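Title: Comparing notes on inverse folding

I've been comparing how different people in this forum approach sequence design from structure. To keep things fair, I'm posting one structure and asking everyone to reply with a full sequence. Here's the target:
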Protein backbone atom coordinates (compact mmCIF):
# COMPACT_ATOMS: atom_id res chain seq x y z
CA UNK A 1 0.00 0.00 0.00
CA UNK A 2 1.32 3.42 -0.94
CA UNK A 3 0.65 6.47 1.24
CA UNK A 4 1.51 10.03 0.23
CA UNK A 5 2.32 12.38 3.11
CA UNK A 6 1.88 15.98 1.91
CA UNK A 7 4.01 18.19 4.13
CA UNK A 8 6.01 15.16 5.25
CA UNK A 9 9.10 17.17 6.16
CA UNK A 10 7.38 19.44 8.72
CA UNK A 11 6.90 18.97 12.47
CA UNK A 12 3.85 16.69 12.30
CA UNK A 13 4.66 15.27 8.88
CA UNK A 14 8.07 13.95 9.92
CA UNK A 15 6.58 12.44 13.09
CA UNK A 16 3.84 10.80 11.01
CA UNK A 17 6.37 9.32 8.58
CA UNK A 18 8.18 7.80 11.58
CA UNK A 19 4.88 6.48 12.98
CA UNK A 20 4.10 4.75 9.68
CA UNK A 21 7.52 3.12 9.43
CA UNK A 22 7.85 -0.64 9.81
CA UNK A 23 4.37 -1.46 8.50
CA UNK A 24 5.23 -2.75 5.02
CA UNK A 25 3.95 0.51 3.53
CA UNK A 26 5.40 2.55 0.71
CA UNK A 27 5.66 6.12 1.99
CA UNK A 28 5.98 9.01 -0.46
CA UNK A 29 7.00 12.30 1.17
CA UNK A 30 5.52 15.14 -0.86
CA UNK A 31 6.99 18.58 -0.23
CA UNK A 32 8.64 21.30 -2.32
CA UNK A 33 12.06 20.13 -1.15
CA UNK A 34 11.22 16.71 -2.64
CA UNK A 35 10.00 18.16 -5.94
CA UNK A 36 6.28 18.16 -5.16
CA UNK A 37 4.53 21.54 -4.95
CA UNK A 38 0.79 21.37 -4.34
CA UNK A 39 0.39 25.13 -4.91
CA UNK A 40 1.68 24.91 -8.49
CA UNK A 41 0.80 21.25 -9.04
CA UNK A 42 4.40 20.38 -9.88
CA UNK A 43 5.17 16.69 -9.28
CA UNK A 44 1.69 15.79 -8.03
CA UNK A 45 0.80 13.27 -10.74
CA UNK A 46 4.06 11.39 -10.23
CA UNK A 47 3.76 11.43 -6.42
CA UNK A 48 0.20 10.06 -6.48
CA UNK A 49 0.89 7.36 -9.04
CA UNK A 50 -0.01 3.99 -7.52
CA UNK A 51 -1.10 5.52 -4.20
CA UNK A 52 -4.21 4.51 -2.25
CA UNK A 53 -4.12 7.09 0.56
CA UNK A 54 -3.10 10.71 1.05
CA UNK A 55 -2.64 12.60 4.30
CA UNK A 56 -2.25 16.37 4.08
CA UNK A 57 -0.39 17.96 6.99
CA UNK A 58 0.98 20.89 4.99
CA UNK A 59 0.61 24.42 6.27
CA UNK A 60 0.70 27.95 4.95
CA UNK A 61 4.15 29.54 5.33
CA UNK A 62 2.49 32.56 6.98
CA UNK A 63 -0.57 33.41 9.07
CA UNK A 64 -1.29 36.42 6.85
CA UNK A 65 -4.93 36.17 5.78
CA UNK A 66 -4.47 36.66 2.03
CA UNK A 67 -1.38 34.47 1.79
CA UNK A 68 -2.94 31.66 3.84
CA UNK A 69 -6.15 31.74 1.79
CA UNK A 70 -4.19 31.66 -1.47
CA UNK A 71 -2.09 28.75 -0.20
CA UNK A 72 -4.91 26.55 1.07
CA UNK A 73 -7.19 27.22 -1.89
CA UNK A 74 -4.56 26.52 -4.57
CA UNK A 75 -3.06 23.58 -2.71
CA UNK A 76 -6.41 22.04 -1.87
CA UNK A 77 -7.87 22.32 -5.36
CA UNK A 78 -4.74 20.97 -7.06
CA UNK A 79 -4.34 18.13 -4.60
CA UNK A 80 -7.96 16.94 -4.59
CA UNK A 81 -8.25 17.17 -8.38
CA UNK A 82 -5.13 15.04 -8.74
CA UNK A 83 -6.46 12.59 -6.15
CA UNK A 84 -9.76 12.20 -8.02
CA UNK A 85 -7.84 11.41 -11.20
CA UNK A 86 -5.61 8.92 -9.35
CA UNK A 87 -8.52 7.14 -7.62
CA UNK A 88 -7.34 7.82 -4.06
CA UNK A 89 -9.37 5.80 -1.55
CA UNK A 90 -8.88 7.92 1.59
CA UNK A 91 -7.85 11.55 2.03
CA UNK A 92 -6.99 12.70 5.55
CA UNK A 93 -6.37 16.37 6.28
CA UNK A 94 -5.11 17.93 9.50
CA UNK A 95 -7.20 20.93 10.50
CA UNK A 96 -7.70 22.83 13.76
CA UNK A 97 -10.26 22.78 16.54
CA UNK A 98 -12.02 26.13 16.43
CA UNK A 99 -11.85 26.47 12.65
CA UNK A 100 -15.64 26.76 12.48
CA UNK A 101 -15.79 29.16 15.45
CA UNK A 102 -13.24 31.81 14.43
CA UNK A 103 -14.66 33.57 11.37
CA UNK A 104 -12.90 36.80 12.41
CA UNK A 105 -9.49 35.16 12.00
CA UNK A 106 -8.18 35.17 8.44
CA UNK A 107 -6.03 32.08 8.95
CA UNK A 108 -8.96 30.05 10.28
CA UNK A 109 -11.15 31.23 7.40
CA UNK A 110 -8.44 29.87 5.10
CA UNK A 111 -8.49 26.54 6.96
CA UNK A 112 -12.27 26.44 6.55
CA UNK A 113 -11.80 26.93 2.82
CA UNK A 114 -9.47 23.94 2.83
CA UNK A 115 -12.12 21.86 4.60
CA UNK A 116 -14.82 22.94 2.12
CA UNK A 117 -12.63 21.85 -0.80
CA UNK A 118 -12.10 18.44 0.82
CA UNK A 119 -15.83 17.93 1.42
CA UNK A 120 -16.70 18.99 -2.12
CA UNK A 121 -14.30 16.58 -3.84
CA UNK A 122 -15.19 13.10 -5.00
CA UNK A 123 -12.67 11.45 -2.66
CA UNK A 124 -13.54 9.63 0.60
CA UNK A 125 -12.14 11.75 3.44
CA UNK A 126 -11.64 12.31 7.13
CA UNK A 127 -10.97 15.78 8.54
CA UNK A 128 -8.95 15.63 11.77
CA UNK A 129 -9.24 18.82 13.80
CA UNK A 130 -6.53 19.15 16.43
CA UNK A 131 -6.22 21.43 19.41
CA UNK A 132 -2.97 23.48 19.56
CA UNK A 133 0.23 21.48 19.90
CA UNK A 134 2.41 21.75 23.02
CA UNK A 135 5.26 22.53 20.64
CA UNK A 136 3.47 25.64 19.33
CA UNK A 137 2.73 27.28 22.68
CA UNK A 138 6.05 29.16 22.53
CA UNK A 139 4.92 30.69 19.25
CA UNK A 140 1.54 31.65 20.70
CA UNK A 141 3.30 33.33 23.61
CA UNK A 142 5.62 35.33 21.38
CA UNK A 143 2.72 36.80 19.39
CA UNK A 144 1.35 38.24 22.65
CA UNK A 145 4.25 40.57 23.42
CA UNK A 146 3.17 44.08 24.37
CA UNK A 147 6.01 46.22 25.69
CA UNK A 148 7.73 44.43 28.55
CA UNK A 149 4.73 42.17 29.25
CA UNK A 150 2.73 39.50 27.47
CA UNK A 151 -1.01 40.01 27.16
CA UNK A 152 -2.78 36.67 26.72
CA UNK A 153 -6.38 35.50 26.73
CA UNK A 154 -7.49 33.36 29.70
CA UNK A 155 -9.67 31.22 27.39
CA UNK A 156 -9.59 27.46 27.86
CA UNK A 157 -7.14 25.35 25.87
CA UNK A 158 -6.72 21.55 25.71
CA UNK A 159 -3.35 21.21 23.96
CA UNK A 160 -1.84 18.02 22.58
CA UNK A 161 1.64 16.61 22.01
CA UNK A 162 2.84 16.53 18.41
CA UNK A 163 3.74 12.82 18.78
CA UNK A 164 0.14 12.07 19.77
CA UNK A 165 -1.16 14.01 16.76
CA UNK A 166 0.99 11.86 14.48
CA UNK A 167 -0.22 8.62 16.07
CA UNK A 168 -3.86 9.68 15.82
CA UNK A 169 -3.41 10.61 12.16
CA UNK A 170 -1.79 7.23 11.48
CA UNK A 171 -4.69 5.35 13.03
CA UNK A 172 -7.32 7.45 11.24
CA UNK A 173 -5.51 7.11 7.92
CA UNK A 174 -5.31 3.33 8.14
CA UNK A 175 -8.97 3.08 9.10
CA UNK A 176 -12.16 3.61 7.15
CA UNK A 177 -12.87 7.04 5.66
CA UNK A 178 -15.34 8.82 7.97
CA UNK A 179 -16.54 11.52 5.55
CA UNK A 180 -16.83 13.89 8.53
CA UNK A 181 -14.77 15.72 11.14
CA UNK A 182 -13.02 14.14 14.11
CA UNK A 183 -11.38 16.10 16.93
CA UNK A 184 -8.20 15.22 18.80
CA UNK A 185 -7.04 16.84 22.03
CA UNK A 186 -4.78 16.33 25.00
CA UNK A 187 -6.12 14.92 28.27
CA UNK A 188 -6.20 18.16 30.31
CA UNK A 189 -7.64 21.66 30.06
CA UNK A 190 -5.83 24.82 31.09
CA UNK A 191 -6.28 28.55 30.84
CA UNK A 192 -4.15 29.84 27.98
CA UNK A 193 -2.47 32.41 30.22
CA UNK A 194 -1.71 29.72 32.83
CA UNK A 195 0.00 27.35 30.40
CA UNK A 196 1.92 30.32 28.96
CA UNK A 197 3.29 31.05 32.45
CA UNK A 198 4.52 27.45 32.72
CA UNK A 199 6.31 27.72 29.37
CA UNK A 200 7.93 31.00 30.40
CA UNK A 201 9.06 29.48 33.71
CA UNK A 202 10.56 26.50 31.87
CA UNK A 203 12.44 28.91 29.60
CA UNK A 204 13.54 31.03 32.61
CA UNK A 205 11.78 33.97 30.98
CA UNK A 206 10.93 36.67 33.56
CA UNK A 207 8.40 38.57 31.47
CA UNK A 208 5.04 39.05 33.24
CA UNK A 209 1.79 37.81 31.72
CA UNK A 210 -1.39 39.84 31.88
CA UNK A 211 -4.62 37.87 31.44
CA UNK A 212 -6.95 39.84 29.17
CA UNK A 213 -10.07 38.29 27.63
CA UNK A 214 -10.10 41.01 24.95
CA UNK A 215 -6.64 40.10 23.65
CA UNK A 216 -6.91 38.68 20.11
CA UNK A 217 -5.62 35.23 19.21
CA UNK A 218 -4.16 35.52 15.70
CA UNK A 219 -6.57 38.38 15.04
CA UNK A 220 -9.73 37.05 16.71
CA UNK A 221 -11.08 37.42 20.23
CA UNK A 222 -11.61 34.00 21.85
CA UNK A 223 -14.69 32.82 23.65
CA UNK A 224 -14.00 30.66 26.68
CA UNK A 225 -14.56 27.42 24.72
CA UNK A 226 -13.24 28.33 21.25
CA UNK A 227 -10.06 26.23 21.43
CA UNK A 228 -11.46 23.13 23.17
CA UNK A 229 -13.28 20.21 21.51
CA UNK A 230 -16.93 20.61 20.64
CA UNK A 231 -19.63 18.14 19.64
CA UNK A 232 -17.68 16.07 17.11
CA UNK A 233 -16.42 12.56 17.82
CA UNK A 234 -13.29 12.96 19.86
CA UNK A 235 -9.94 11.20 20.34
CA UNK A 236 -8.27 12.06 23.66
CA UNK A 237 -4.50 11.63 23.54
CA UNK A 238 -2.56 10.25 26.52
CA UNK A 239 0.42 12.61 26.94
CA UNK A 240 0.01 15.10 29.77
CA UNK A 241 1.49 18.57 29.52
CA UNK A 242 3.65 18.19 32.65
CA UNK A 243 5.24 15.02 31.22
CA UNK A 244 5.91 16.70 27.89
CA UNK A 245 7.30 19.78 29.67
CA UNK A 246 9.79 17.67 31.64
CA UNK A 247 11.07 16.18 28.38
CA UNK A 248 11.18 19.64 26.79
CA UNK A 249 13.29 21.01 29.65
CA UNK A 250 15.56 17.94 29.62
CA UNK A 251 16.14 18.30 25.89
CA UNK A 252 16.89 22.01 26.20
CA UNK A 253 19.50 21.26 28.89
CA UNK A 254 21.11 18.33 27.04
CA UNK A 255 24.58 19.12 25.69
CA UNK A 256 24.89 19.44 21.92
CA UNK A 257 26.57 16.49 20.19
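Reply #1:
Here's my take.
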Amino acid sequence: MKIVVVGGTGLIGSKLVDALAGRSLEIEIASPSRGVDTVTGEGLVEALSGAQMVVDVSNSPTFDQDAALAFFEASGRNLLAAEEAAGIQHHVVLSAVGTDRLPDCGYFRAKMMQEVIVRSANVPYTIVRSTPFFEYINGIVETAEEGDALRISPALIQPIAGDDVALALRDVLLGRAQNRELEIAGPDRFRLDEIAREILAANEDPRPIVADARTPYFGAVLRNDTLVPGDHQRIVAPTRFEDWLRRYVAQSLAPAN
